[in-house]
Amino acid sequence: MYECFLEIAFEAELNTNEDPECLALAFEQCNENPVTRDASIRELRELIYERGECKPHRTDDAFLLRFLRVRDFIVPRAHKLLVRYCNFRAEYPHLYKDVDLWGLTKVKDVYEGSMLDRPDVGRLTIFRFGMWDPSEFPVEDLVRVGMAMAEIGVRQPKMQVLGGTVIIDLEGITLRHIATLTPTIAYQMVCLLGVATPGRLNSCHLINYNWLLNSFFYIYKRFIPQKAWGRIFFHGHDLKSLHQHIDPECLPKRYGGTCRNHVSIGQWIQKIKKYRDAQFDKEMKDLGYLIKE
């Protein structure tokens, strides 16, 4: 039963078609008006050409719609995010250019996610930093995975509308981990949480941390926009506090939840590889990724 659910969920994961339910949610969550949507897309496209502040690799309707949705269809804000997105890609091409997409399964259980996408939570992603062994692969690969997840996830209209919730589980973090967090790495990770990507971050929750949190968070906090602080929550080891923000039905058992529909990033990438189509391959290659058979 569980495996059957996952197979169905992953087939839907690569579906880029709009559906009536998604359009209804887009009106509620993103201020999207079907009557004026096309006009807003044209306005954003004209602004790109008029200002010349960025040269995105795509300017088609579906691509520009991602940026409008995450900025509530306020065209100047969508344009500003698009500029940041293009600048981020131009500044850090090593995070995607010639990166073997299927090879990113190496990170195993460091990332995991829930396949239950609810309006109150969106896509739940869990980053278990302490599960990473710095001797196995560089910290840049963690950023590469985060970037690939963002690019793949935002292809799905439902994810553009619902956004996502992130749990950062710091159990097991040591000074070896902290030593890898240069300001550049910290900046890149913050950018992937919606600062420079067309993803809607609903909230971010830090749990299971120790005295090293001060060192960990000191590196990050200077890059976090002031308006984002209202969506960042610190729970320590208090799962009841976490449950006040995230329904236990969405959480795995280790966090006091009842959800079984969680997969590691390794499983997720393998399923994406299985169910992908020619359009997926083209879009990811256009982004710079290597797609090997």
From TrEMBL:
GO terms for cellular component: membrane. Residues 103-263 form the CRAL-TRIO domain. It comes from Papilio xuthus. This is Clavesin-2. PANTHER family: ALPHA-TOCOPHEROL TRANSFER PROTEIN-RELATED (PTHR10174), SD01558P (PTHR10174:SF234). One of its GO terms (molecular function) is phosphatidylinositol bisphosphate binding. It comes from the Eukaryota. InterPro entries: CRAL-TRIO_dom, CRAL-TRIO_dom_sf, CRAL/TRIO_N_dom, CRAL/TRIO_N_dom_sf.
